[in-house]
Batch of 2 targets.
Target 1
Amino acid sequence: MKKVLVTGGTGLVGKALEAVIKEQSPADEQWYFAGSKDADLTNLAATQALFAREQPTHVIHLAAMVGGLFHNMNNNLDFLRNNLLINDNVLQTAHEQGCVKVVSCLSTCIFPDKTSYPIDETMVHNGPPHPSNYGYSYAKRLIDVQNHAYHDKYGRLYTSVIPCNIFGPHDNYKPEVSHVIPGMINRMHQLVTEKLEVPESEKVFTVFGSGKPLRQFVYSLDLAELMIWVLRNYESVEPIILSADEAQEVTIFEVAQAIAKAFNFKGKLVCDTSKADGQYKKTASNAKLRSLLPDYAFTDFETAIETSVKWYKENYDQARK
């Protein structure tokens, strides 16, 4: 019997994993989704107590201090220190307690700022990350270094996945920490529900920045299915990019259009070019994934946005905002 511990199990990806596992109901696996109430993973003793209680054989490590562009820019030291502590505590405790496999979650934003595209798994350490989020990026990169070190010293199969921008139900909609899609969903909902003296067609939704940067997005339910596949079938310490195909890349303005459509918003979309754009593009190659899973069908972007907006409206009172 596999006992799978998910750290950060109450967040966006954790909730998606829980939904997929509930649907699959595997007979040979027990899953436990740990949230911040279960343990402060920056504290070694608390991390050890969680592992001692749950006795996992496998770990999906999602827990991290995360935030959007503007939150990262102001808090690089905190992102660096807290994530270093969390990652070292989880990986070392997993090793000490005999966990046979750990799958940690990295991010495409950790790649070098100056690079050629598309980026692939071999390029993680090829130069400094974007200066806006270097604290988070270096802490995440060190998971890959540590995975190799556990493999070299102890033969451990501790590996990592690198998703592109994730969105879906149970996202974090708090304006000061949210990523682009939940941030827009929250602001669009406020605009649509505001009782203004102007007709709907004259309402204006502001897109932060030029709207031109390109992004790949992955729907949280798709990512959950792929992470479960990695846990069960991917037998390498080398990271693997879990990303939709390059052809599915969209501009930030197209994201705003999809969200406007999901809300049936009839007003105008306007770009505020005084706001920062971040990186222009971060195109990632999923060639390694496609070589192993050629037929996986990603959820259509507009459909996934519709589902995410529907969840937000139906769960507005409980959403993190």
Target 2
Amino acid sequence: MAHPVQEHQSRLPVAQAAVLALPASSQTQDLRPRLSAVDSLLCGAFAGAVAKTVIAPLDRTKIIFQGKISGIGPFSVQEAFRLIYCTYLKDGLLSLWRGNSATMVRVMPYAAIQFCSHEQYKKLLGGDYGSQERALPPFPRLLAGSLAGTTAATLTYPLDVVRARMAVTAKEMYSNIMHVFVRISQEEGVRTLYRGFTPTILGVIPYAGITFFTYETLKKLHAERTKRCQPYPHERLVFGACAGLIGQSASYPLDVVRRRMQTAGVTGSSYSTIVGTIREIVTKEGVVRGLYKGLSMNWLKGPVAVGISFTAFDITHDLLLKLHQMGYSIS
């Protein structure tokens, strides 16, 4: 429950005067005050939930193509939307969000951990580089994103496997999230919950690093050019979309490998190693049609998801900050 914090209110005039007294060049740096770790977790969870819910039908369709389910032809945008339409006719509108509950169970802690740890890594690296109150230099900016993505992926990976299984199977096979965990553990072994973990981490390191680096860099350049500390919401969406487009394009082949290894137990394939999976995909389907299968779908959904995620996080972050400045505490 929100409660006033009188002591904090008495300090506001001094803090505002200090900001106004800063030289113009300093105001273009990343001077946004830091919220607590709990606040960052809440902002990240909300951002991840909103973004993934919006693009859930496209995400499910992409997983089906990546998993090479029988009866599904070669990927094309037209074929993807035909699959969405046929799924709607056969199973109803809500079927397009099948597996989204598992997605929320995974994405909310994943996004919460990723955004929160990113803030913490920025503090840590900012102190090491003497720039705790400024935008980080390029390399630590890239490193903070990679570390944040690695931390989140490591802690939430089994939930990603469950989400992938629910997305590519009929609803009769798995009734709920716990059913997936139980059946995988009993029939395939607990280690299956970590199948594809290595390509995931190898993909997350460049993806998260490039995505956060691009977004933070665009905000920094925007601040230097416009002399505004924070961009408008539509500008955040554009910056996030650019970041998502670049990051996902760079790491996409490893995403395909990860999905093949995760869904091998239900597709009848024998993908067990990264090299073996890549070799089999390239041999049977080719480089472009295999390792980049569904990339055009990612270009459609990825920038939208990342743009919404970054924008939702920043807006929620700023809202909580204003509540603190007004004398209220949420956490």
